[in-house]
Specification:
alpha/beta, about 290 residues
Length: about 290
């Protein structure tokens, strides 16, 4: 393909995507001045070529400005179609005005991306009140399922698994993984009482006897939901659970909290660079790009 691929903070995944798509790695110099402003210099010929930008947006306020400036630079240098590949898509949580005066930041963020990019690819975004990304993004935007990557990991690493979703929002993803693996599953009930306080109701799960619980979530941030689920499962006599997540954002102390509750293993997809990455998503992204 006659496309250049640039990356901001996601070198390993970007390299695999470039190899899978046959894209040329674009030359990019990026640094920050002492006052925090970004310096960008593109060293590849861009005129009349498509561009792909692979970026780690797990901490968006740290990298968003550089992402938008890079897109503007590529446009100024003559790139035709610029596609953002953001394996983790931020600012999807605030999808409604819950309290008077709040901003619906998912829509405002989308407008920034719409203004600078021609297409968007992401993996398992937080689609709660939006049915599809088309409800919030004006550009072609595709949300890719992580189920194939999660199912492949489970098939390799877990015997006699029992899949568990921590809340109702996880139900569609858990069902998709269960369909691919043929494993039984259940979905727990969660009541959130604050940013770091949750209560999880775990029903009596006789089917867990002799099986390894596999707790699957889309995002691990504070870890409190999965820690509470682990505590309740262990109280029922269940085996130490395996914790598997699409996005490992990990607020400070999250991993320590999960380990303290006695999880057996932790693995995440490589949507956000982290030592726990063990599920590759370049295949999912490659297939998604081909049909974008």
């Amino acid at each position: 393909m006659n496309a250049l691929l640039f990356e901001l903070g996601h070198a390993a995944l970007a390299g695999r995507i470039a190899a899978r798509l046959g894209a040329e790695r674009g030359a990019l110099e990026h640094r920050e001045f002492p006052d925090g402003e970004h310096y960008l210099r593109v060293g590849s010929e861009c005129a009349n070529r498509d561009a792909l930008v692979v970026v780690d947006l797990a901490h968006p306020d740290r990298r968003l400005t550089a992402t938008l400036l890079l897109a503007a630079t590529l446009r100024d240098l003559g790139c035709r179609r610029i596609t953002l590949i953001a394996p983790y898509l931020p600012y999807m949580r605030q999808d409604a005005r819950f309290q008077p005066g709040e901003g619906v930041t998912s829509r405002y963020f989308a407008k920034l991306i719409d203004a600078h990019f021609d297409a968007l690819l992401t993996v398992e975004p937080h689609l709660h009140r939006y049915a599809t990304l088309a409800e919030v993004y004006a550009i072609p935007a595709r949300a890719l399922s992580a189920a194939p990557a999660l199912a492949a990991w489970i098939a390799t690493h877990v015997e006699d698994g029992f899949l568990i979703g921590p809340d109702a929002e996880s139900a569609p993803a858990i069902a998709a993984v269960a369909k691919l693996t043929g494993l039984p599953y259940a979905v727990l009930e969660k009541v959130r009482r604050g940013d770091r306080e949750v209560e999880v109701a775990v029903p009596e799960l006789a089917a867990l006897v002799g099986r390894t619980p596999v707790l699957i979530d889309d995002v691990i941030s504070t870890g409190h939901t999965l820690a509470e689920a682990t505590r309740k499962l262990r109280a029922q006599g269940a085996r130490p659970p395996v914790v598997l997540a699409t996005h490992g954002v990990f607020a400070p102390g999250a991993i320590e909290l999960l380990l303290a509750e006695g999880i057996a293993r932790l693995a995440t997809c490589d949507t956000v660079p982290h030592p726990s990455n063990d599920c590759a998503v370049d295949g999912i992204i490659g297939e998604g790009f081909a049909s974008l």
